[in-house]
Amino acid sequence: MPLLRATVEGNVETLNSSAQQSVRVDTALESIQLGDLQTIAPAITWVIEHLHTSPSIQHLVNDIANETAVAVCDRSYFEIHGIGSSAWIHSSADGSSWIEGGGIVPGPISDLNSYRCELGGLLGIGIGTACLKNLCPARRHYMLTACDNLEALRKITLARTKVKTSWKSVDFISQILDVWSQQHCQPSPQHVYGHQDDKAWAH
Amino acid sequence: MGPLTFVEHLNVRMDKLAKTLAIRSFGIPQSIPPAVLCIGLGQAIIQGSLVTSTFQKSLSYGIHHHAMVEYVANKWELDVNTLQHTVSWPSIAKAHKQGSFPFQKFISKWISEDTATGIVLKLRKKRVHDNCPRCNAPHEHLVHILTCPHPEVRTITADLLVELEAWLTQEDTYPSLTPILVASIRSWLLDPYEDEPNFLWPSPHLRKAIIAQQQLGWYAFLMGFIATPIVSLQNSYYKKIDSKKKGTTWATRLIMKCWNLVYHLWTHCNSVLHETQALDALSGVNTLRNWIIAEYALGQGSLHRVYSRYFSVRLETLLQKHTDQLKQWFLVIRSGREAIHVSTTDPFTTNASLRNWIGLPPIYK
């Protein structure tokens, strides 16, 4: 295959490429205390700007191993302020043991939308699960992963080879797929109808 | 309706948490997260902004957009940062996308100052004079095309502004914004060098928005460079009246309206140029007449006898002929003289524009 020459003009900063081995590495800690357990520190830190857990997460870890735990995410997007955030939770089946996290979705305002924020939440779920990787069984197991955006949900089970750089929020999509590919736990996507607050009030 | 399922309950809980996190961050500038090794596609930052979507397009936009902003800021004598951060760029991009290809070409040429004004045509040696075909003012430039004091132009401008005002009202524009916008544009079109009109500001937000636009200028506004505070103000108004419309869409449509206004004034200028004798006058028809008289006086001289019939017509009859016929007569005689190296010194031997207009071969030095 012939080598093609490309010229990039302007102020482009490359942080990760085959030619530049000294990439900027996240300065995150190697381990982190979640509830009563010591877990692997998350690779992506913006998804845990907010991080809170139940006093013990042992029950959650057990439920993940038993495939009864659930992970849910949602987002909030304020177009006029140019702010989007996402929040995610891993919970045991009875809701007694949980980890919740969230953060402000990074990226240019022009690319920010509810879909990107939702993908941010799904990335949070993937990262949260990766933190518990060493505590979970070393065999393929599934965790119900729920989100109210079908399009975003479809992306988490795609083949990595199908990802195109011409997609919107492709940075998050590639990160989500890579995070899940590096662990035994796999997402079992489920759509949940969003904004059910009214339903709760009606009830 | 039954009670919430466990998953729905968690979704509502996360919705609230996400809202809280977002609200807490209002007004706090965002930082770019550190690059992550071995996860995802890596990280690219261009002009201080993360590339997150449609990589090729975003990189190309990042590079070319900045170059364009610098170019426009330089042309319009504006601060690059002001232009970069005050203009509602997504609205311009959408308006450009929605326009037809000829229209996209028209507006790109106009902004890059490549439109065929008097000055540009004189520079390209296509015309001898760079006067306005409508008011005959010298050095016709883009701003002059929009602000020409010719009565016909004033009438068209007034009509277009009435149409714009009606459109703004129809689009549920913030009521206090419409008269200020129209008055400001009208004032600029009447005299671009005059001070801004005085307004009684109904609200500080409106004042801030209009001042942001004044910093960019009303020429920039007509070019589609609408200040973001105006778009935000309109968006807030739509929310206030419970409208589903968006400020950005309003801005996109307003940009199209402004471009149409510019296009109308441009086509009027063109129609005057091509449907009257203006083009001939600007190309040098008077000079041509003078030198036809000189050539006629010189007579057939050493020209071949086939040229004799060109001198059989009476000069008065010849001069009354259409410009095309005058050009043809002069082209034949002058080509004949140049072919036998008859030495003459007049504007047609030195001026490239005149030679080009007549159809004589270019001057080679």
Features:
heterodimer, A: 203 residues, alpha/beta, Nucleotidyltransferase, domain 5, six-stranded mixed β-sheet, two-stranded antiparallel ribbon, B: 365 residues, mainly alpha, 3 domains, 2 strands
Describe, in plain words, how this protein is organized in 3D.
The complex is a heterodimer of chains A (203) and B (365). By secondary structure, chain A is an alpha/beta fold. Chain A has a single domain (31-192), classed as Ribonuclease H-like superfamily/Ribonuclease H (Nucleotidyltransferase, domain 5, 2-Layer Sandwich). Helices cover 25% and strands 27% of the residues of chain A. Chain A has helices spanning 58-65, 114-131, 150-155, 170-181, 197-202, and strands at 12-14, 31-34, 37-40, 50-53, 70-78, 83-91, 98-104, 141-147, 185-191. In chain A, strands 4-7-6-5-8-9 form a 6-stranded mixed beta sheet. Chain A is globular and about 55 Å long. The model of chain A is unreliable at 19-28 (pLDDT under 50). Chain B has 365 residues and is an all-alpha fold. Chain B folds into 3 domains: 45-75, no CATH class; 79-278, no CATH class; 284-358, no CATH class. In chain B, 62% of the residues lie in helices and 1% in strands. Chain B has a two-stranded antiparallel sheet. In chain B, β1 (44-46) and β2 form a beta hairpin. Chain B is elongated and about 110 Å long. The model of chain B has no long low-confidence stretch (mean pLDDT 90). At the A-B interface, β1, β5, β6, β7 and α2 of A face α1, β1, β2, α2 and α12 of B. β1 (12-14) of chain A pairs antiparallel with β1 (44-46) of chain B.
